[in-house]
Amino acid sequence: MSDNKVLIFDTTLRDGEQSPGATMTHDEKLEIAGMLDDMGVDIIEAGFPIASEGDFAAVSEIAKNSVNSRICGLARANFADIDRCWEAVKHAKQNRIHTFIGTSPLHRAIPNLTQDEMADKIHQTVTHARNLCDNVQWSPMDATRTEWDYLCRVIEIAIKAGATTINIPDTVGYTAPAESADLIKRLIKTVPGADDVIFATHCHNDLGMATANSLAAVAGGARQIECTINGLGERAGNTALEEVVMALKTRHDIMPWTTGIDTTKIMAISRRVSTVSGFLVQPNKAIVGKNAFAHESGIHQDGMLKNRENFEIMRPEDVGLSGTSLPLGKHSGRAALRDKLEQLGFEVGDNQLKDIFVRFKELADRKKEVFDDDVVALVRADSGEDEDDRLQLVSMKVVCGTGGPAESTIEMEVDGKDMSATSEGDGPVDATFKAIRQIHPNTARLQLYQVSAVTEGTDAQATVSVRLEEDGVIATGQSANTDTVVASAKAYIHALNRLLVRRDKVGEGADAKEVSYKDLA
Ligand code: KIV
Ligand code: ZN
């Protein structure tokens, strides 16, 4: 590997998926892994195989289908986790076992181990992993709050036991750029054997410094960045892949490191991860936010027209946005729609194109111009309304109250049977959700209800995300429509359908997370 190459280790499917509510289905995980592989991600952390049968199946399947990426699974510091991890990743052409243990004083207290006991455990578990797999990553969790001498000692042990990558996690997002660079630099200088392994950086964004800390770690000598699409991850998330990759590309003059990522695939995967995780991307998010390449003010627009470099440091095309978009309207044909879908990174089969085209025509009849985001919303809606769903919305009528309650009448098919209900509520969405609950009684708690207008104007498409929780099982639903209340009803029903599927699977023991990666006892 060249000295200037930085490996990209994507953990969207493990650390990202771990964030509350971001659970993805088996097929969604496979699809995202395929996209990550295709865009040039070096290592995909596909899951935590011992956590559940569902995780194990997903990691195994991703391993079998991998093309160029190395497939990695997570394992705690015990033989059962490591064996299970190996059983899943062994199918990949290139595989990796990633094993970890919390080494800071706070984290050592969880399994109640002395420094010596933990050191011994690290020696045994890394040796065991290395006997199974020739590519082993070891992480001292909470490294940035671990005593310097102890950190050096355990890293040396892991290297001697055969670890090939040493990852330095900033588990709680505590470090700062100068410290991050300095830590890696000093470790490489101090720990015997450090030159023979790759040092990785794994940052969380609690103080909004994950990207800066990761890049600083590279300046200090790290040659692997761990990150997720859209910065998905627990709490404030992980380092965002798109940010570190585009920073290295755009500021190559001062950061002379390269990655193997095809950056033109960034937008497509960002949108897909947002859809399947139910985590909308904030409009002003760097690189992938809706406004990241939008220029609103007159002064900016004028400057852009004179020379785009006045206000743009990256070309939209480089992240996969169609620079100049040819507007789609009611006269556009199927070929133009397919072309647009391809530009936006969607590969759709003939049947799906047919469905989307019908919806596109309906929308184009209602709107003067159909924008890129409208098309994305159409694809989202298409994938969100599964014909196999047990609950289907047939029709709805809402009367908004002025000064009084709103009233919603819903007609649904439940397992093929027509049912209807009318309910009053505190506003049209509340009335609608209550009517749906009358038809399909449930105890699911609404954890999140989010509306975003994906296009401008009063004829904008609204995307609604709904996250529900019932008995510890979480499901997310999304839908888009020019009518916000219709989008809300569909998103709610979508989430209920996913909850039904998940509950069935959990009943069979397939998808429940049986252990947590923090559960070290
Ligand atoms: O943040 C963290 O410490 C982790 C480890 C499992 C590497 O995700
Ligand atoms: Zn993490």
Structural overview:
The protein has helices spanning 12-16, 26-38, 53-65, 79-89, 105-108, 115-132, 148-161, 177-190, 210-220, 241-250, 266-277, 298-306, 334-343, 350-366, 372-384, 428-439, 484-507; strands at 7-10, 43-47, 70-76, 95-102, 136-141, 165-170, 198-203, 224-227, 391-399, 406-414, 417-425, 445-453, 462-470, 473-481. It is of the alpha/beta class and 521 residues long. The chain has 4 domains: 7-277, Aldolase class I (TIM Barrel, Alpha-Beta Barrel), CATH 3.20.20; 293-321, no CATH class; 322-383; 391-508, Alpha-isopropylmalate synthase LeuA, regulatory domain (Double Stranded RNA Binding Domain, 2-Layer Sandwich). The strands form 3 sheets. The chain has an 8-stranded parallel β-barrel, surrounded by 6 helices. Strand 7, helix 9 and strand 8 (224-227) form a beta-alpha-beta unit. Helix 8 (177-190) runs parallel beside helix 9 and helix 16 runs parallel beside helix 17 (484-507). Residues 517-521 have low confidence and may be disordered. The structure holds 3-methyl-2-oxobutanoic acid and zinc ion. Residues 15, 100, 139, 141, 167, 169, 171, 202, 204, 517 line the site of 3-methyl-2-oxobutanoic acid.
